[in-house]
Write a structure and sequence with these properties.
single chain, five-stranded antiparallel beta sheet
Length: 120
C-alpha cells in the first residue's frame, strides 16, 4: 500500500484513505493560500471604502450638517472617487454617491456637498 503525504507539509498521513492534510493547521494554511488573491482584493476594496467613509465623516462632523468642500480637499486627504457603495437619485434628479452612510453630491465648479444618510 502506497502512503499518502500531507498536501501542505509533506508529512506521511495516517488514518482515512481520503485524508489530504495532517492537521487543521495545514488544512487552514492550504485554504488560506488558495483564497489569498481574493482576500487581498477584498481587503483593498474594504480599506478604500472605509477610508473614504472616514474622510466624509470627519468633514461632516466638523460642521454637524451638510458641508460644501472643494474636490481637491478630498483628493488631498486620500479620497478615492472610484470606490463607493451605492448611489441615490432624489426627486429633483440630483445624484448622491455614498460610502456606506456618508456621501456627496457634485455641485458646480468642483464643489461637493457632503451629506449623511438619514438611515431609510
Amino acid at each position: 500500500m502506497e502512503s499518502k503525504n500531507c498536501v501542505t507539509c509533506g508529512k506521511v498521513l495516517k488514518g482515512r484513505s481520503d485524508k489530504k492534510f495532517c492537521d487543521d493547521q495545514c488544512r487552514n494554511s492550504h485554504n488560506n493560500q488558495l483564497k489569498s488573491g481574493v482576500n487581498n482584493y477584498k481587503r483593498k476594496v474594504n480599506g478604500a471604502l472605509s477610508k473614504n467613509r472616514r474622510i466624509l465623516e470627519d468633514l461632516f462632523v466638523r460642521n454637524g450638517k451638510m458641508k460644501r468642500v472643494k474636490r481637491d480637499l478630498l483628493v488631498g486627504l486620500g479620497f478615492q472617487f472610484n470606490y463607493q457603495t451605492h448611489t441615490y437619485n432624489n426627486r429633483k434628479g440630483s445624484t448622491y454617491v455614498y460610502c456606506y452612510d456618508y456621501g456627496y453630491m457634485e455641485m458646480e465648479k468642483d464643489w461637493l456637498l457632503i451629506v449623511k444618510s438619514n438611515g431609510k
